[in-house]
């Protein structure tokens, strides 16, 4: 089983725009500068995702303020497809661990 790549950071580069558009939702989403969401973020990606290239996901992550974590898996899965793939147990565990470590008691 291949291992994921992981990174944790609290730094942010706000020097240029990301190209994300602001969406009308009841929860905060990232806009062009990527600095709108101050809550902890867990970004999970597949390194061969055909829908959203890893570089694009990584660019959004890089511009977002911390605290944040980035994890990529060797897969072509996109979104919830990760729960049906070889890494489903690790993805589920990582999400639960992230929530448990970031939600105040």
Topology:
Elements (H helix, E strand, L loop, with lengths): L4 E5 L31 E6 L7 H10 L4 E6 L14 H15 L3
Parallel strand pairs: 2-3
Antiparallel strand pairs: 1-3
Walk me through this protein's architecture.
The chain is of the alpha+beta class. Helices cover 24% and strands 16% of the residues. The chain is built from 2 helices and 3 strands; from the N terminus they run E-E-H-E-H. It has a 3-stranded mixed beta sheet with strand order 1-3-2, with helices on both faces. Helix 1 (54-63) links the parallel strand 2 and strand 3 (68-73).
Largest sheet features: 3 strands, mixed
User: Which stretches are low in confidence, meaning pLDDT under 50 for 5 or more residues running?
Assistant: 9-27
Name the structural class: alpha+beta
Sketch the topology as an H/E string, one letter per element: EEHEH
